[in-house]
Structures are given as structure tokens and as C-alpha cells.
UniProtKB/TrEMBL annotation:
One of the Pfam families matching this protein, by short name: Glycos_transf_2
Residues spanning the signal sequence: none
Source organism of the structure: Archaeoglobus fulgidus DSM 8774
Name the UniProt record assigns to this protein: Glycosyltransferase, probably involved in cell wall biogenesis
MF term (GO), any: glycosyltransferase activity
Transmembrane annotation, as ranges: 221-241, 253-273, 280-298, 313-335
Alphabetized InterPro entries for the sequence: Glyco_trans_2-like (IPR001173), Nucleotide-diphossugar_trans (IPR029044)
Domain Glycosyltransferase 2-like residues, every copy: 4-85, 104-257
Keyword list, A-Z: Glycosyltransferase, Membrane, Transferase, Transmembrane, Transmembrane helix
Taxonomic lineage of the native organism: Archaea, Methanobacteriati, Methanobacteriota, Archaeoglobi, Archaeoglobales
UniProt cross-references to SUPFAM superfamilies, sorted A to Z: Nucleotide-diphospho-sugar transferases (SSF53448)
Length: 350
């Protein structure tokens, strides 16, 4: 038997569509609803669904655990109501399965986030080759009931899904990728920042807690370097390629050429400066072209639609910004651990 737990906060979103599809697939559906609108209650009654309902926001980890306690299935699907399942296969021998998510939208931000989800799918697919993962995306994933119970369910964390996935990986549980779902994404920059702040703080919290164990298992984290490749390459360029001691020496020596010919000295210094810029530009462009080729191949392989025109914006702006947010969260979490303070996140309850 299979059980689907659908998390709902306030509005129904794709709840009814998912219930219809999942019941056809043989799933028993349980709704975990916080502060539900009347439409949610009507769907629960219409389809005679079991549900755990709270008039106040419990925190997602608690809401999911409450629903999981009354689940009967040997396979558990955890799904957000703003994510709609397109196709789904079973666990196929794995203990934890990440469902591939994609984004449908015409706005620039939605197109950039679509690239983000493709990169996440690439990382998950690569990690699955090693039979492991560095967390799961809670919008849609499956887990064996036995594994879920052995791990103690969800813990009180900002990113309860990341925490469960990392503990599963460290515990040696098998990981795979399957299926397809379409998920909703932020429609504004403000919403995007709030979401990414939550993801980065929650992810860092779990990463720092398990740092020593994760570091000892490169197969857990190496695949995810792909996620931050644009920023990592830029850092390598700034740290190593700019350390051109010959150029620095020329910058010191060439001004003295002005004693002979100021015009020649100016031209020589400008030439050295432009050569440095051109070298860094060529390295950056070459890296971008290689990365874009990888994205194109991955999109074809995974049957994933992305707008290739937004790749320069993603590579040179979006990804570095996302990396900076993660680094800032690392500092915030480290300070919070030292001082014993709790990090407050807007529009989120733990």
C-alpha cells in the first residue's frame, strides 16, 4: 500500500488535481492542513480524505509528522499542494526517491528559477549514481516507511526535508531520482529572497550540524559543486588568474618609462591592463560556453525545458547572488550557534 501526505497551508492550490491523480495510482491520500480555507475542507469532504487539520500554523515538520503517524502505506509520498504531480514511479528498490521538479512560467524570474531546478535535478541525478544525496526537496519525494521511521521522521528544523535527506545519506540509505512534477515558484524578487534566505539558513543549519560526517564522505557533496559552479569558477579566477606577478612587476617598472617617453609609457601600461582583462574575459567566456553546453545536454537528457537566452544572466548574476546568500547564511548560522540565538525568518514557522 502507498500513502501520499499532501501539505497544505491556507489555500488548496493543486490539492484536488493531485488527489485525483494519486487515487488513480493507488495512493491513500492524507491531507496535512494548517489554517485551511473552506475550499480545502470541501475537497477533504468530497473525496472522503483522512486529514490532520490545525487552525494555527504548526510548522511544516510537525504537520507532516502528524499526518505520517496515521499513514498505513509502506511507501510514503510527501507532496506540497502547490506542486502538481505529472508522472510518478515507485521506489524501485531505493529507500529515498527525489521527484524531478520543473517550472512553468513566462517571466524572467521564473525562467531563471527553471534553470535552477534543472541544475538541482542534475545534482540529484549525479548523486544518485553514487547511491546517495545531500538532502531532498520536500515539494515532492518518496521514502520507504521503514526508513522514515528508523530516521525518526522529520525533526524540528527550518529545512526539515534537507535534514531528513542528509540523515538518510549518512545512514547509508539508497537514493534514486524518478518521476516528474511541476512546482510553483516565487513571482517577485522579494518572495525569491525570502525563500532563498529560508533555504540557505535551513540548509546551512543542517550542514554545519553534520559537517564532520559530510566532509568525510565526498560522494555526498562533490556532485553539488555543480550547483555553485559559476561562482566557484569566478572565485578561482580572482584568486589565481589575477596573481600575475609579471604584470604586477610591469605596473611598477613601466611608469619609469615615462622619463623617456610619457606617451609610450601610457600605451605600455594600458596594453598590460587590457591583456589582463582580455585573459580573464576569455577564461570567463570559455567557462560559460562549457557550462552552457552541459546545461543543454542535461536539458535534452532529462527532457527539461529551459530558455537558453537567460543562461548568461543565470551564470553571471543569478548564481553568484544565490552563492552570496548562502555564504551570508553560513556566517549567520555560525554566529547564532556561538551566541545561542535563534534566527528568525519572515513568514515561516518552525
Amino acid at each position: 500500500m502507498k500513502t501520499a501526505v499532501i501539505a497544505v497551508y491556507k489555500n488548496a492550490a493543486f490539492l484536488e488535481e493531485n488527489v485525483r491523480l494519486l487515487q488513480k495510482e493507488g495512493f491513500d491520500v492524507i491531507v496535512a492542513a494548517d489554517e485551511p480555507e473552506e475550499s480545502v475542507r470541501e475537497i477533504i469532504e468530497k473525496y472522503s480524505l483522512r486529514a490532520t487539520v490545525s487552525e494555527r500554523r504548526r510548522g511544516k515538520w510537525r504537520a507532516l509528522n502528524d499526518a505520517a503517524r496515521i499513514a498505513d502505506g509502506e511507501e510514503l509520498l510527501f507532496l506540497d499542494s502547490d506542486t502538481i504531480i505529472k508522472n510518478l514511479t515507485g521506489l524501485n528498490g531505493a529507500d529515498v526517491v527525489e521527484v524531478v521538479k520543473e517550472v512553468e512560467g513566462k517571466g524572467l524570474l521564473e525562467k531563471l528559477v527553471a534553470v535552477d531546478y534543472l541544475v538541482m535535478a542534475m545534482c540529484a541525478k549525479l548523486a544518485s549514481k553514487f547511491g546517495s544525496c545531500l538532502g531532498v526537496n520536500g515539494a515532492a519525494f518518496l521514502i520507504k516507511r521503514r526508513a522514515f521511521e528508523e530516521l525518526g521522521g522529520f525533526r524540528c528544523k527550518v529545512n526539515e526535508d534537507t535534514d531528513l535527506g542528509i540523515r538518510a545519506a549518512l545512514g547509508g540509505y539508497r537514493f534514486a531520482v524518478c518521476g516528474r512534477a511541476v512546482t510553483s515558484v516565487p513571482k517577485s524578487i522579494g518572495e525569491w529572497f525570502r525563500q532563498r534566505e529560508r533555504w540557505s539558513v535551513g540548509g546551512t543549519e543542517v550542514f554545519v550540524e553534520n559537517l564532520s560526517a559530510i566532509i568525510r564522505k565526498p560522494r555526498l557533496w562533490v556532485p553539488y559543486l555543480v550547483l555553485f559552479y559559476p561562482a566557484i569558477f569566478g572565485l578561482v579566477i580572482s584568486l589565481f588568474f589575477t596573481e600575475n606577478y609579471i604584470a604586477k612587476l610591469l605596473y611598477l617598472v613601466l611608469p619609469f618609462l615615462a622619463l623617456i617617453s610619457p606617451k609610450l609609457a601610457s600605451i605600455a601600461i594600458l596594453a598590460v591592463y587590457e591583456m589582463e582583462n582580455v585573459r580573464n574575459l576569455v577564461a570567463g567566456v570559455a567557462s560559460f560556453v562549457a557550462w552552457s553546453g552541459l546545461i543543454l545536454l542535461a536539458s535534452k537528457k532529462l527532457g527539461y525545458r529551459v530558455d537558453m537566452k537567460v543562461l548568461p544572466i543565470y551564470y553571471f548574476i543569478y548564481s553568484p547572488l544565490w552563492t552570496v546568500i548562502c555564504l551570508i547564511s553560513l556566517v549567520r548560522v555560525a554566529v547564532a550557534r556561538v551566541t545561542g540565538r535563534k534566527i528568525e525568518l519572515k513568514d515561516w514557522v518552525v
